[in-house]
Design brief:
By secondary structure, the protein is of the alpha/beta class. It has 14 helices and twelve strands. The protein binds pyridoxal-5'-phosphate.
Length: 372
Amino acid sequence: MIYADNAATTRLDIDALHAMLPWLQEEFGNPSQPYSFAQAPRKVISDSRELIASCIGANADEIYFTSGGTESDNWAILGTLDNAKAHIITSKIEHHAILNTCKYLEDCGANITYLDVDSTGIVLPKMLLNQISHKTNLVSIMFANNEIGTIEPISELASIAHENHSIFHTDAVQAVGHVPINVNSLNVDLLSASAHKFNGPKGIGFLYIRRGIKIKPIVHGGKQERRMRAGTENVAAIVGMATALKKNCDNLFAISQNLRTIKDIFLNTLERNKVDFICNGDPLGIPGNTSISVRGISGETLLHRLDLKKIAISTGSACDSGSTQISHVIKAIGVPNEYAEGTVRISFGSNNTIDDAIKIAEAIVDVLRKRN
Ligand code: PLP
């Protein structure tokens, strides 16, 4: 089987797995307990927090563990809201973890502005300038898009938000562990991440909260995470996330060079075989992410035909798979209708080789030929 849906989830890194095992077996203590058996899990959480902070240029006390990207996004939006009539600015191409949270708030009376993007999926800073005012509480723009991989001009957008006394959040779920990130040079106040997108375990992530930012908890209960996020810590998952992130960050350059080569070979193979397609997004986006819109076939058909050949790709974001509709991202970037329906996302990861790229491209060519 060839797995090329790494934007949906990734395989757990073997070192991360080994680092996790002791915390599921021998050292299973609850970190909140006062006895000495709880000391080791407490310490490993603290060490992991420091390791994660060092990977994104943050202080350890600015990292809060959550159950993943969706919770981090919900927390950033719901936690910073200081009145029911808040004004939030986001973009039309955000993940549903952001869009549906905004929709929920809209139903409660909040005012939400959804910014357009250009044809490569970029939120132009002038678009934000046109909509922002001193009444805007929060601006939330994703770091990198999960369907087309486009990377947004985050530091410029964050500066505009700050000039207007607004908090700036970025959903960096597709970026953390894939591109260099420094929260200080980016100038962001809040940043969401999810471990299973960078070869860590599922069900764990974090929200970076800059010191001094006012944010309320949304998960109430015990005193964990300095009273900001209740619930017994998932110690093993936290350790796995820290191990995977550190490993990815140490090898970022080599991994991304390799992924860019694999992507180029994939696209060249399609071109050589005269496939009529558009490559979506900004070429300088997330290295392994490849969104193509092929003329004359539906994305769903392509996905299922490739599935029969034991190749796993996706039609868009994970949550849009199985839906025959054109995704909100593909609509927002204005892909012509005759191509839009044939959109698939091939997201290469560290598990993939040049050989995989050629095989996937040839499989697409074969499906198209047999259809004619
Ligand atoms: N944000 C983006 C950009 C994503 O790609 C995803 C996952 O697909 C999420 C948020 C949700 O993350 P999680 O699966 O950890 O809840």
